[in-house]
Amino acid sequence: MIHVVNNNSGVFNIYVFVNAGGIYEPDGKLGISHMLEHMLFKRSKHMTNEQLLKRLTRIGGSFNAATDKDVTFYYIKTNTDNANDCIELMKEILVSPNFTEKNLDSERKVVIEELNKGLDNDERLLWQMSYMSTLDENNAYMNKVIGTVKTLKAITTKDLYAYYNSYYSSYSIIVDCEKNIEKEVRKRLNDAFKTKITSAPRTRPYFNEELDRKVIVMNINLNQYTLSLSFPIVIDTFSVKEYIVLEFISFMLSGAGLYSLLMYELREKRSLVYTVGAYNDCMKYLSLFKINIATTQQDTVHIINVVLKTINNLKTGSVVTEKLKFFKKSFESAMRLNLSNADYKCFLLGTIMFNSDNKVMINETDMMKVVKSITVNDIAKCCNKVFDTDKLGVVAVGKYENPQTQANNILESLKNWQNK
Known about the structure:
Elements: E1 2-7, E2 11-18, H1 32-39, H2 49-58, E3 62-67, E4 72-79, H3 83-95, H4 101-119, H5 122-132, H6 149-154, H7 157-167, E5 171-178, H8 182-192, H9 194-197, E6 215-219, E7 225-234, H10 240-255, H11 261-269, E8 275-282, E9 286-295, H12 300-315, H13 321-339, H14 342-355, H15 364-373, H16 376-386, E10 393-398, H17 403-414
Helix pairs in contact: 1-7, 3-8, 10-16, 11-12, 12-16, 12-17, 13-15
């Protein structure tokens, strides 16, 4: 499916979303989605790696790709003058793969280097542990997208072709371009990706939807304590309204700066933390709403109680109407600013399109209409669905002399919030 939105800034931006990622990978081949993403840039049937990279570099924009749990996306950003080259290059990358053992052996080394670098990344470790704190170990969303050294070494060019043929059958494409070239862009995209945009999206895959709430406390000699609270959400049907309401909730909790609800309560009023980040890690069939906190305070239980009390006020509709109006006005302003960025706009609208199986294609105006329609009841309804403390997973990392005692204290405190 192709969705075109317009700008008058001379920017040409194309994003292609593919139903491929960690949850689809066969046993023993973990990391194949990410490896395939790398290999598609190595060469095509008509261009060598050098030719591809020279053409991509010549258009003077930016290009990249990323693989996640249930999606892989590719993008090229340039100016209007290079629109035709941009479409041709995206087609070359995604429609005409040419895998060789030599290139695979070479790129495997690069990916293993990336894997090893990630092992030293505390932020990535915390990200993976947030899944461990909420999901059953057999849940496909627990698969490590980058794989392991063992599984990466097991991948062959035959495996790559088989995976490509199975999962690169349907694309969701979003383009941001000037109105005067939209007709020509649509025609060229239809010609380039005809077989990929007429195929039906993949059916919902089976994955173990069992949730397994845990409290994980790790004693690591760091200068500060890091706390991550994760609320899992199994998505049966994607809702644009709910998605945008959750974006607004994360904005109220931390995105509005020092006056956001959690930053004001934890930092400005109590001096308990330095940073708080709340965001909805939305995937196609599962989301984790995460609240990450950095602090020098060891009193983790107290901080968690302040967070849950703040959330409970949202769940019970205790947000004063005037405060809601204040945050909505701020959120509207922030969204307009964000949507003026071509990358943000394409990724956000493309994610909505992809997660809805191409059923929902909206533009900036539609987005703002939804934002303006948010009510206190919408917030309370969404919060009661998402912030289920019985499913809350907790990760705490820092100088905890007795991690098990700390974990027990957190579990005991969470009992006070059950069924609230």
